[in-house]
Amino acid sequence: MRISLDEAAARLKNGEVVAIPTETVYGLAADATNDAALQQIFTIKQRPADHPLIVHIGDISQVIDWAAEFPELAVNLAKAFWPGALTLVLPAKDHVSRVVRGGESTIALRVPDHPVTQALLKASGLSVAAPSANLFTQLSPTSADHVEAGLGNAIPVLDGGACRVGIESTIVSVSEDEAGAHWQLLRPGMISEVEITRVAGQPQYASEIHVEDTLASIPVPKVPGQHALHYSPRTPLRLFKDKAALLSECKVLMQEKITCAALFVGAAEALQYTSSELPRMELPDLPAQVAEQLYGALHALDDLKVDCLLVEMPPNTPEWTAVRDRLSRAGHH
Ligand code: TXA
Ligand code: MG
User: Which residues form the YrdC-like domain (predicted)?
Assistant: First the structure.
């Protein structure tokens, strides 16, 4: 059900849940100070209560409403990347709802870079907690249609068009001790670790996010809720290091009458072996464009209701880290 900006603001003020656009993915939003409203997010998403939510604020001046500390290192990151696809995890003020922080002592904050989201925060006068607007562990939505397909038509959606970034924000935690402020990457995103390092210096701990070259294993992550079953289409998904490996497995599966669809990164038309029986999508060979189109492509392939999705992994180089992270999780069945 599509609603206007004014109606979305009114519903949020009334303690209701509304799906909203952001530049990364659509969020399922509620007033971040209203525990009953926040509970509905967990219920609708079927999300465990110990998975904290990100609070979306209008501008940097509102950080001190939520965070007990705002070290200079974090101020510098906020100034460099907000509004934008960076979430900062900071020590929370005592009054901050335990529901929104999932029992953690910290709070996750982000200033979204989307004109409709910004207008909504202004019109409502609220800060809104919003996880991605999908069922727990399923693919994130990057359009209003995705939200309705995943959560049903009864969910009120503020349509802000297709998401420009396309995958979830980079999450960085910042803490301070006698030795000074430290940061750690908790979730990779299109704002890269290199860009963060340029502003904040070297991280205290190496990122725990390594997408294994074997594609076999990913380590247990540090972010609550970032476990291996995230971002999955309903169709089982398998990852391949290149087109040739994908297609040779595809041949085997087709002989066994297992139906497949493929997602290639970089043009595949030159490959003669792409059988006409194989439904497929091709994404351009550019990280930002792949990120923007990734969930849309996976939603579309999922809708084909084949037995198995075969996906070509982009190369194991830094500019592909975030896309490889999401694909690894989608493929982890
Ligand atoms: O781009 C995004 O970040 C989108 C849009 C809607 O803003 N939101 C999003 O929310 O991806 P969600 O809930 O799907 O993912 C938020 C992640 C979760 O893995 C959660 O565990 C982590 O942020 N998180 C939230 N608060 C945290 C905290 N206090 N400490 C550590 N991790 C936290
Ligand atoms: Mg999510």
Answer: 2-191
| Cα→Cα distances 123→4, 23, 112, Å | 12, 19, 15
Q: Identity (one letter) of the amino acid at 322?
A: A
> For the chain, what is the mean pLDDT?
91
CB 329 within 8 A of CB 311: no
Predicted pLDDT of residue 213: 41
Provide the token pair at 297.
């492509």
How many domains, the chain?
2
- Ligand 1 center from residue 236 Cα (angstroms): 25
Mutate to test the pocket of ligand 1, among 50, 54, 146 (most ligand atoms within 8 A of CB): 54
Q: Which atom in ligand 1 lies closest to the alpha carbon of residue 171? A: 23
Q: Is the pLDDT of residue 210 over 60?
A: no
Examine the domain organization and report whether 41 and 95 are in the same domain: yes
Q: Residue with the nearest Cα to atom 10 of ligand 1? A: 131
**CA distance linking residue 74 with residue 66, whole number of Å:** 14
Ligand 1 binding pocket mutation candidate from 171, 174, 187, 295 (most atoms within 8 A of CB): 171
Residue 280 CA to ligand 1 centre (angstroms): 31
> What distance in angstroms lies between residue 131's CA and the mean position of ligand 1's atoms?
6
Structural domain contains residue 232: no
Domain extent at residue 19? 1-227
Q: Give yes or no for residue 184 CB within 6 A of ligand 1.
A: no
Q: Which of 198, 227, 256 is the last residue of a domain?
A: 227
Of 223 and 131, the structure prediction assigns the larger pLDDT to 131
Q: How confident is the model at residue 219 (pLDDT cuts 50, 70, 90)?
A: very low
Within this chain, do residues 262 and 322 fall inside the same structural domain, yes or no?
yes
Average pLDDT over residues 222-249: 80
